[in-house]
Amino acid sequence: VKRIGVLTSGGDAPGMNAAIRAVTRVATNIGLEVYGIYDGYRGMVDGKIKQLTRESVSDILDRGGTILGSARLPEFKDIEVRKKAIEQLDKFGIEAVVVIGGDGSYRGALALTDMGVNCIGLPGTIDNDIASTDETIGFSTALNTVVDAMDKLRDTSSSHHRCSVVEVMGNRCGDLALFSGLSSGAEIVITSETGFDESEVLDRLREFDVVKKKNHALVIISEKITDVEIFARKVSQFTGFSGRATILGHVQRGGSPTPGDRVLASRMGEKAVDLLMQGVGGQCVGIQRGEIVGVPIEEALNMPSKSRKDLQNLFDRLV
Ligand code: F6P
């Protein structure tokens, strides 16, 4: 392999730039040429491709977002679209690609590998929803952002005997909710794993107010479960707390990556280049019990999602 490409795809995540930098630096330092593919698979199809040097990735380690831009391209499922992408790669002499993104991006990487272009996936998503890795690039930073917001919401909620109902991202994965609940001392965490029984949650809130005499309550709820504005109104109606909804939204996707994300992204970027140099494709990089590993994408996509029963039990024992 002499020339590789790198792209970011799907929702951006803090630390993607650190991964781009690691891939570029590790590869160029062993004499490879690296090409940046802009705007994800869309840019691959359209030929938005430019060479990256060690200088082009200077001063990006600490920057959120992705200098390459990102996009979602559902049409990449279509073989004709992928053929166009491969034509572009051939035009630039790109023999292998590092794809930084979530599970949708992994599917594209696997399909390209099956068509003869070795691809390695790196888990870049704030959701932490990739079963083949203990942690994804961006999760630590997003978690910090959520916890920072929770700490602030506690200040104001306890000053007004309020209940803050906070919606966090996660795309059907409850990790951002559960980990931020544990870190911020929230009263209630609702995820797809815990389920949502509205009247039971209202009962528990009444108990926090009347029996436990709490001045505030923080409820963290994963996106796509219920309308938090409506639920906050019900809190005001049916409990002693006055309810307020906060949807943290895309704030969670931005910001300078934590050192944890920077190191993780650097280690994973290095592994991706090493795998490509060994002629490996169709794998994704993960961290498992502290070790950086390569896992076949097919296997990764079929793994059951991580159970959080233990952490949920811990949460229940702490409230
Ligand atoms: O996958 C990352 C993520 O931020 C999810 O948490 C969320 O559901 C989704 O992307 C939002 O997507 P978009 O930025 O396209 O609205």
TrEMBL record:
Its cofactor is Mg(2+). It catalyses: beta-D-fructose 6-phosphate + ATP = beta-D-fructose 1,6-bisphosphate + ADP + H(+). Residues 3-276 form the Phosphofructokinase domain. Its main location: cytoplasm. Substrate binds at residues 125-127, 162, 169-171, 223, 244, 250-253. It is found in: Cytoplasm. Mg(2+) binds at residue 103. Keywords: Allosteric enzyme, ATP-binding, Cytoplasm, Glycolysis, Kinase, Magnesium, Metal-binding, Nucleotide-binding, Transferase. It comes from the Bacteria. Catalyzes the phosphorylation of D-fructose 6-phosphate to fructose 1,6-bisphosphate by ATP, the first committing step of glycolysis. This is ATP-dependent 6-phosphofructokinase. It comes from Breznakia pachnodae. The lineage of its organism: Bacteria, Bacillati, Bacillota, Erysipelotrichia, Erysipelotrichales. The gene is pfkA.
